[in-house]
UniProtKB/TrEMBL annotation:
Residues 55-427 form the Methionyl/Leucyl tRNA synthetase domain. Belongs to the class-I aminoacyl-tRNA synthetase family. InterPro entries: Met-tRNA_synth, Met-tRNA_synth_2, Methionyl/Leucyl_tRNA_Synth, MetRS_core, Rossmann-like_a/b/a_fold, tRNAsynth_Ia_anticodon-bd. It catalyses: tRNA(Met) + L-methionine + ATP = L-methionyl-tRNA(Met) + AMP + diphosphate. Its EC number is 6.1.1.10. One of its GO terms (molecular function) is ATP binding. It comes from Bionectria ochroleuca. Keywords: Aminoacyl-tRNA synthetase, ATP-binding, Ligase, Nucleotide-binding, Protein biosynthesis. GO terms for biological process: methionyl-tRNA aminoacylation. This is Probable methionine--tRNA ligase, mitochondrial. One of its GO terms (cellular component) is mitochondrion.
Length: 663
């Protein structure tokens, strides 16, 4: 049992190490009976050697015509968090990511940079691999579509589409006339095209009404996939599986598009126009459409084309349990992809999760505007885990989210430094080593001391409400699991933050430092242990639940608490289940002075805030900066637990408006 738990926990720590990311990427994989031969594989969190299919989660493969941006990191982290959550439950999980390396945009970008397409994709693919490493992503495979294994999978899939289906359901050749967008790599129906003006020149152009991308009229001979023949099957899929696309709004959007705009899909480009791609194995004058090529990567990872070809065979880790995509590519994954799989009678992915985009100062990120966030700089500035926390806390499935350095700074100060870090040091490293011991508090609980003294509790008086934190501790796990099962890390983080906010309130109300002075009261030690135990239990449980989101920082917190590695899975995130952790009075760390730079969440340089949202949230603290800013923030958090965030802001506003006494 213990060894199984340890195996499942291997990915909960960060994938980073002092070694270079090239060495990290080239580790030899542990072979599993269901596992294909990956292009790049890590040994982090490889599934346990059982026969159950791992939970298979995929990022979209990222297009390498340019360097990575913060949106790419967000998608990677979201998938990684959801994978690690599966492992937190003791389950096997497999994460695939990689790069999409063919198509017209690659060909044009290479020509512009005066390099070959291969040189361009080799260079940029390494940047995405490096980003995965620096972002703490525990991917099991990093696939590249220029790899020979993938080309074999695409060729086999293509041949089946072309030759293995009834004539009306398979590929056919015809002349395509339509509006084509190079930047979006797709054709658009006539009713989704509109006239516009090019901003730089004022020249009249035609654009997609959906994306705003310029389109051009193209007439060329291509192979077609009869997408319209699969319309009823697609609509039936959506109607019988309303949760197949998350969120619901994206399901409605996709269904409406299939109902009103579906056309047969042009699935090749003339090789004379596009040579950088996978050729039709029977007709080399045609290059396979980049999106058909790219979508098949999810099958390549599962061994399709090499280890299996039909659903009657052992399909390894296919079908995918969760495929995560951005809103700009939902149609490719929720319309084209299931139709292609239906054509070959292959199982569909179990769920599509669609997220929105990131903006900068409420403007869409654009290289031409110069407001693209470099994820490597962001990691360097904030650290891997704090940035992961921010992205998961603020990212959204329903609306675009603004990236703000002020907001990250505020969240770091309030939620990480004060709500977690400062709380830990207040409880576990008190200034005087003689005041209390977390180890003694834990032993007191398991000895039944608190139950014997329940008569001392007075919930009407915060100073004596020793048991008031317990319902919050007991309720956090169910809500956390509900949010994570619904692929909503932001909701899970909110619940953990709420628990720790209540814990800060509890510590401020009960004042254990004052209880420790009341040595003349016979029961003072029991009461002191009661407060300390509940506080440290909240920290321990929060540390366990934060592991998927902040694997390194949560791991360090649990290390500091002396929580054993085999007691960090989700079944241990229950009050009163672990009797073995805690810091004894003789522990050398108790006597050590904690240096600020060596804390779990070290201080950042003092910031000057300009974001109106942040100024509103931090008003009192920004206006009156002091050396005790962290303690002041902890008290602010405690006030929020008592009054609510809106209540604290209203109180601050009323104080500002109060007239001064002129007498």
């Amino acid at each position: 049992m213990v060894s199984s738990m340890l195996r499942s926990l291997r990915g909960l720590r960060t994938a980073s190490s002092p070694a270079s990311y090239q060495k990290f990427a080239s580790r030899s994989p542990i072979r599993r009976p269901w596992q294909c031969r990956p292009i790049y594989t890590t040994t982090e969190s490889l599934p346990s050697a059982d026969t159950e299919k791992p939970y298979y989660i995929t990022t979209p493969i990222f297009y390498v015509n340019a360097a990575p941006h913060i949106g790419h990191l967000y998608t990677m982290v979201l998938c990684d968090v959801l994978k690690r959550y599966q492992q937190l439950q003791g389950k096997s999980a497999f994460l695939s990511t990689g790069t999409d390396e063919h198509g017209m945009k690659i060909q044009q970008a290479a020509a512009k940079e005066a390099v070959t397409p291969k040189e361009l994709v080799d260079n940029n693919s390494q940047k995405f691999l490096k980003l995965a490493h620096e972002g703490g992503i525990s991917q099991d495979t990093f696939i590249r579509t220029t790899n020979q294994q993938h080309k074999r999978a695409v060729s086999h899939f293509w041949t089946q589409l072309k030759n293995g289906l009834p004539k009306r359901l398979g590929l056919y050749k015809s002349t395509h006339k339509g509006w084509y967008s190079v930047s979006d790599e797709c054709f658009y129906p006539e009713d989704l095209i509109e006239a516009s003006l090019e901003p730089q020149t004022g020249k009249k152009i035609m654009v997609s009404s959906e994306t705003g991308s310029m389109v051009e009229w193209v007439e060329e001979e291509t192979w077609f996939f009869p997408l319209t023949k699969y319309k009823e099957q697609l609509l039936k899929l959506y109607d019988e599986n309303p949760g197949w696309i998350q969120p619901e709004s994206k399901m409605k959007e996709v269904r409406n598009w299939v109902e009103n705009h579906l056309e047969d899909l042009s699935v090749t480009r003339p090789a004379a126009r596009l040579s950088w791609g996978i050729s039709d194995p029977e007709d080399p004058k045609h290059t396979i459409y980049v999106w058909v090529d790219a979508l098949i990567n999810y099958l390549t990872v599962a061994g399709y084309g090499d280890k299996w070809h039909l659903k009657e065979e052992n399909m390894g880790i296919w079908p995918a349990d969760l495929q995560v995509v951005g809103k700009d590519i939902i149609r490719f994954h929720a319309v084209y992809w299931p139709a292609l799989l239906m054509a070959l009678d292959l199982p569909l992915p179990k769920k599509i999760l669609c997220h929105n985009h990131w903006t900068m100062s409420n403007r869409k990120m654009s290289k031409s505007v110069g407001n693209v966030v470099n994820p490597f700089f962001a990691i360097q500035r904030w650290g891997t885990d704090p940035l992961r926390y921010f992205l998961m806390r603020n990212g959204s499935l329903s609306k675009d989210t603004s990236y703000s350095n002020d907001l990250i700074e505020m969240i770091y100060l309030k939620e990480l430094q004060a709500n977690i870090g400062n709380l830990y040091y207040r409880i576990c490293r008190p200034k005087s080593s003689s005041r209390w011991s977390t180890r003694d508090a834990i032993e007191s609980f398991f000895a039944g001391d608190f139950k014997k003294n329940e008569h001392m509790v007075d919930l009407s008086d915060p100073r004596y409400s020793y048991s008031s934190l317990e319902p919050h501790i007991d309720g956090v796990l169910d809500i956390y699991k509900r949010e994570m099962d619904n692929n909503n890390p932001a909701g899970a983080i909110n619940e953990i933050f709420g628990l720790l906010r209540e814990t800060n309130r509890y510590v401020s109300d009960t004042e254990p430092w004052n209880i420790a002075k009341k040595t003349d009261i016979p029961e003072f030690r029991v009461v002191l242990n009661w407060v300390v135990f509940n506080s440290i239990e909240a920290l321990r449980i929060a540390g366990i639940l934060l592991q998927p989101i902040m694997p390194t920082k949560a791991g360090r917190l649990l290390d500091e608490l002396n929580v054993k590695p085999e007691r960090r899975t989700i079944q241990w995130a229950v009050r009163g289940t672990d009797d073995s952790y805690g810091i004894s009075p003789t522990d050398s760390r108790v006597m050590e002075k904690v240096q600020s730079w060596d804390t779990i969440f070290p201080p950042t340089p003092a910031a000057t805030y300009s974001d109106p949202e942040v100024l509103e949230i931090l008003g009192g603290i920004v206006e009156n900066p002091t050396k005790n800013r962290l303690n002041k923030m902890s008290e602010w958090i405690a006030m929020e637990a008592r009054l609510g965030e809106a209540g604290v802001r209203d109180l601050l506003l009323s104080r500002k408006k109060k007239p001064t006494n002129t007498q």
